[in-house]
Amino acid sequence: MRPARRSAIAAAWRRAASRLLACAVLAAPGGGHAQAALALALGLDSVDRYRGMGTADVGPVLRASAMVDAPAGAYAGIAGLWRTRDAGLASADALLGWSGRLAALPALDTLAPEWGWDAALHRRHDDGDGRRDFNEAMLGLLAPGLALRAWYAPHYFGGYAHTVYTELDGSRALDDRWHAFAHLGWLHYGPAEAGEARTPDRVDTRVGIGATLSNWELRLARDAVLAGHGRGDLDARRRSPAWILGASVAF
After folding, report:
1. Hey, which of 85, 116, 169, 184 would disulfide with 142, CB 3.0 to 4.6 Å?
2. pLDDT in tens, the chain (251 residues)
3. How is domain 3-250 classified at the CATH fold level?
4. What is this structure's pTM?
């Protein structure tokens, strides 16, 4: 890809991130008529994993994120992941969405307030010249302790095939400090480009336990692919299961 093209992609990404940050500032308390909640977090993970697979990044990764929630249900957030070995940007994500309670509907007004719906647009930037960047649209159903979401990407990681990633996430408090969590995901690939074999579907899982200490959270999880496999150009190390030790602090 030409340098001018790479610069244009980087500039577009910076503009998108700046707009989301501006939305966060304007929606935060004191920034406008509507009051909203702004959450900032910093975290460190022992290894970088994405949807059951390892990435090309070696060593621990540092994560920083900002999320703003408006009273009407709108939310926006950005997150970045940096390699600790060279301080390079590994990936970045931007999210813009809307959620609400199902009990707001007349026919479902007897449901508990934890039941809800969720919809969002997601933009992911992968390290490099932007050729692996992609967009997703999401629809979700929220339940007490559970969340079911489906993400549609027309060009997953910049490729030809479209994908649907369906995930079920759950958590359960064990006491005032400890909680357990679990994730199950299914990545479905659409038809391949003419003359190429279709990438097989993949099922991934993550289970773990976490502890909350004031505004700190410590986590230990096991991440793995249960069925299927990655593309042929991914080595066996990145397809292998992994333990993830992480810590994060919220502001």
Report:
1. 116
2. 444 444 444 444 444 444 444 444 333 333 444 568 999 999 999 999 999 998 888 899 999 999 999 988 999 999 999 999 999 999 999 999 999 999 998 889 899 989 999 999 999 998 777 889 999 999 999 999 999 999 999 999 988 889 999 999 999 999 999 999 999 999 999 988 777 888 889 999 999 999 999 999 999 999 999 987 666 556 667 788 999 999 999 99
3. Porin (2.40.160)
4. 0.83
